[in-house]
Amino acid sequence: MIRVLLADDQTLVRAGFRSILDGEPDITVVGEAADGAAAVRMTRELAPDVVLMDIRMPELDGLEATRRIVAAAEPAKVIILTTFDLDDYVYGALRSGASGFLVKDTEPTELIHGVRVVARGDALLAPAVTRRLIAEFAARVAKPAPSSRLEALTDREREVMTLVAAGLSNDEIAARLVLSPATAKTHVSRIMTKLAVRDRAQLVVLAYESGMVTPGWLG
Question: Response regulatory domain: which residues (predicted)?
Fold first, then answer.
């Protein structure tokens, strides 16, 4: 059972998400927080697997709440909820440790899928809109700084990492490089282990900030 905490200051938004998620046999909403401070406290008390986190909330905003949740000894996965007029926060959210984001008016099926994807340890980076936004905000990094951490990667692993940074799934990476999906998954797992990152979202951040890839390189 996937345990979910809803963090949003709008009661109707929380009620809508609860209605959608509680209808699934493998998902249960364990709590609702109306501000960031409550989200951090309830994550510690209820130990959810996934937190759906709004960006703008009283007491403590979603970015700082995400940082505190991810820094915990047993962190929950965080999905940031955003709207197109708040997109400036998306890249910062990923840098803060979020595992991905969803647009607030997303379809119910996408919300359910997103929770399941993040709960199993993957990053919510597949939709085309995510690729575009990550590239846009990565472009704001002042000067990409080469990271010595990347020296541990083989040529094939670097190639795989660039495709992860473009938002490709394991199946899409396998098709592009003519590999089996299992081999692609193994490469991604080894890369995350070598670079000591939690998930694919953090690989994306590192790839852009190190200059390994640049926005729009894949087209």
Answer: 3-119
- Structural tokens at position 39: 């989200």
The chain-wide mean pLDDT, for the chain, equals: 83
Q: Is the pLDDT of residue 85 over 80?
A: no
Domain covering 144-210: architecture: Orthogonal Bundle (1.10)
Strands 2-7 and 27-33: parallel
DSSP string, 160-200: HHHHHHTT--HHHHHHHHT--HHHHHHHHHHHHHHHT-SSH
Determine the 3-state secondary structure of 154 from DSSP. coil
Structure confidence at residue 136 (pLDDT): 60
- Alpha helix (H) residue ranges in 34-180: 36-46, 62-70, 90-95, 108-119, 128-138, 155-165, 170-177
Question: What is the pLDDT confidence band of residue 218, given thresholds at 50, 70 and 90?
Answer: very low
Q: Give me the mean pLDDT over the 98-117 stretch.
A: 86
| Amino acid of residue 21 | L
CATH architecture of 2-136: 3-Layer(aba) Sandwich (3.40)
